[in-house]
Specification:
Number of strands: 15
CATH architecture of the largest domain: 2-Layer Sandwich
Radius of gyration: 21 Å
Number of domains: 2
Strand content: 25-35%
CATH superfamily of the largest domain: Dihydrodipicolinate Reductase, domain 2
Order of helices and strands: EHEHEHEHEHEHEHEEEEEEEEHH
Largest sheet: 9 strands, mixed
Length: about 325
């Protein structure tokens, strides 16, 4: 039985508690949260023990699930890692790059499993493409959200865009060449809306727009590659592939002809099966499995670090583009 401690039981922390209860061979030892009101609600609803000191909970568990605000990630990760505990931490893994580098070293020294909560990797619309041959050369991303004070201790880059940064870095097998970025702080002291262009050494270009002051919600990625277009709607859980018909396997798909300067071409439209998957439960199960089966977590500390590195480079570019007062 894997003994889990949850650190932070706010909005997202409660989701984690609900999902841990559905996962076999896991025992929730208790939780740590300095907020008395939130702690009282969780103790009553879930019947779990509240620990007033993080150290007390760490001593009794095999793995820490850190769902506290970003500013607390480093201290809680450090405490768990120095005590040889496995760690799941929500994105971003730390508040600063210096903290992230220290976490990398601590993970290496402690030889434990470390997973970062980039939950979109487990979105069923994205998982539907696991067997597809993806080699995007142009990527367009829109992630728009209505304003919510929760999460605004960090910029929209580290709050929302980092999801898409992780997905893009996972898809594009190339190093970043150039980053261009602009952003505006509207409701908070950090950028609330941003537009970014990332150029990769292999020629791929990604344009990303993120906003947390939109009137509507949107979480879409469009991939363009030779002979194919792939659309992923993370919010509506839909995936579409439009490609040049390439073989007998495509005979089962809806096809139509188009005229091009090179002659008539046949397009096929594929809508991959979207499985009914709870993404949070799936990522927590993957974390459990990495510990029990002694294998690398699907979103490990290196993935989390690189996504953070690109995000902070974007923040530097935005800061340098601001006019001097």
């Amino acid at each position: 039985m894997l003994k889990i401690g949850v650190f932070g039981v706010g909005h997202l922390g409660k989701f984690h508690l609900n999902n841990w209860k559905n996962i076999e061979d896991v025992e929730i030892v208790g939780f740590y949260d300095p907020n008395d009101q939130a702690a009282a609600e969780v103790s009553e609803k879930y019947g779990l023990k509240r620990f007033h000191e993080a150290e007390e909970l760490v001593a009794l568990i095999d793995a820490a699930d850190i769902v506290a605000p970003t500013t607390f990630h480093f201290d809680l990760c450090k405490l768990a890692l120095k005590n040889g505990k496995h760690v799941f931490v929500e994105k971003p893994m730390a508040d600063t790059m210096d903290q992230a580098r220290e976490i990398l070293q601590l993970v290496k020294e402690s030889k434990v499993k470390f997973q970062v909560g980039h939950v979109e990797r487990f979105n069923p619309a994205f998982l539907a493409l696991k067997d597809a041959r993806l080699n995007p050369m142009f990527i367009e991303v829109h992630r728009l959200a209505q304003f919510n004070p929760r999460g605004t201790e960090v910029s929209v880059i580290l709050d929302l865009m980092i999801h898409d940064i992780d997905i893009i870095l996972h898809l594009v097998k190339s190093d970043v060449k150039n980053i261009y970025a602009s952003g505006v702080a509207v409701m908070t002291e950090t950028p609330d809306i941003a537009n970014v262009r990332i150029e990769f050494n292999n020629g791929c270009v990604a344009n990303l727009t993120s906003s947390r002051i939109s009137m509507k919600r949107m979480r879409k990625i469009r991939l363009f590659q030779k002979d194919a277009y792939i659309g992923i709607d993370f919010l509506e859980k839909k995936t579409e592939i439009i490609k040049l018909k390439s073989g007998e396997d495509d005979d089962k798909l809806f096809t139509f002809d188009i005229e091009t300067p090179q002659g008539t071409k046949t397009l096929a439209i594929e809508n991959p099966e979207i499985r009914d998957i709870n993404a949070i439960e799936a990522e927590l199960r993957a974390f459990r499995d990495s510990i029990v089966e002694d294998k690398r977590p699907p979103v490990n500390e290196i993935d989390g670090y690189i996504a953070m590195e690109v995000a902070h480079e974007i923040l530097k570019k935005i800061a340098s583009s601001q006019p001097s007062l």
